[in-house]
Amino acid sequence: MRVVELEGLRSFQPDKMRKSNVFETTRFFCDLYCLEPGQAQAPHAHAGEDKVYVVLEGEGTFQVDDEFEAVEAGYAVLAPRGSIHGVANDGPDRLVCLVFMAPHPKPPAD
Amino acid sequence: MRVVELEGLRSFQPDKMRKSNVFETTRFFCDLYCLEPGQAQAPHAHAGEDKVYVVLEGEGTFQVDDEFEAVEAGYAVLAPRGSIHGVANDGPDRLVCLVFMAPHPKPPAD
User: Fold this and answer.
1) Residue A109: pLDDT band by 50, 70, 90 thresholds?
2) Taking CB atoms and an 8 Å limit, are B54 and A98 in contact across chains?
3) B42 is in which domain, residue-wise?
4) Half-sphere exposure of B26 (CA within 13 A, CB side)
5) What is the pLDDT of residues A28-59, one digit of tens each?
6) Per the domain annotation, does B63 fall within a domain?
7) What is the ipTM of this complex?
8) How far apart are CA B95 and CA A100, in angstroms?
9) B-chain residues within 8 Å CB-CB of A23?
10) Number of C-alpha atoms within 13 angstroms, CB side, residue A99?
11) Is A97 a domain residue?
């Protein structure tokens, strides 16, 4: 059985946000994003894929299209396909998010 | 922006586990499962859909095919398409899981 401890994937790097894969199949991926204060995921869009951010630790400012909202641990954000989305850790603490995307934009072999 | 507080969806019922939808699109769904002690999701399979369980609170015994494992808060479990999977809250505390499935088995209108 594939069981992953999320704390074990919690890892930061000084130059940019760190993404660690939790699971992926040909149909979706699940990553853990770890952002030091001041780090960000630049706004971007995926034509055909939805993304969900689940904030596990800290707080960040999320963008979906022309909306910006501060979201903290215990909340989930939907970035539907085609939306311009990103997240900035503009607070004083570390930010950790679980991220799901479906379908997988670059599916691995099945 | 669609932002959901997970605590606000945390809800139990006496007769069976409760599922509350967090987000869904035509491509995936994300639910919150809340199980009182003694409640379970019966083992079942989805031919084409993958499921991820993320344990947020408590502990349960997860099944994927012929494997059974006790998994607690902070861990994620993958039930790949075609696998027989389920979860039983066989401990003394409440169990809360975030569940993602992709693709959506019964997609809503886009």
Assistant:
1) confident
2) yes
3) 17-102
4) 5
5) 999 999 999 999 999 999 999 999 999 999 99
6) yes
7) 0.95
8) 21
9) 52, 76, 78
10) 25
11) no
